[in-house]
């Protein structure tokens, strides 16, 4: 992997490692617009201030935008979510593996 690719991955991971960033994207994965309040409910225990900061960061990164009906993922955000689509299957497999170790 080139240093340019490493830098790009580092930047993306830094953004996604921010508390609740992935949850905000995940809540918008179905493509339906969500108001601030609905998005806050979808994400869970996030405070309004933190949600506002995450939205601001994700908008600046070009992954989320605000339309007439609320917040939506952009084409770029949808592409990222598409690439993360295998995450639920992996998470299920991983949890099952951990459960076997606890026996």
TrEMBL record:
Domain HTH hxlR-type, first and last residues per copy: 15-96
Family annotation (Pfam families): HxlR
Source organism superkingdom: Bacteria
InterPro entries given in the database record: HTH_HxlR, WH-like_DNA-bd_sf, WH_DNA-bd_sf
DNA-binding recorded as keyword: yes
Molecular function in Gene Ontology: DNA binding
Keyword terms of this UniProt record: DNA-binding, Transcription, Transcription regulation
Name assigned to this protein: Putative transcriptional regulator
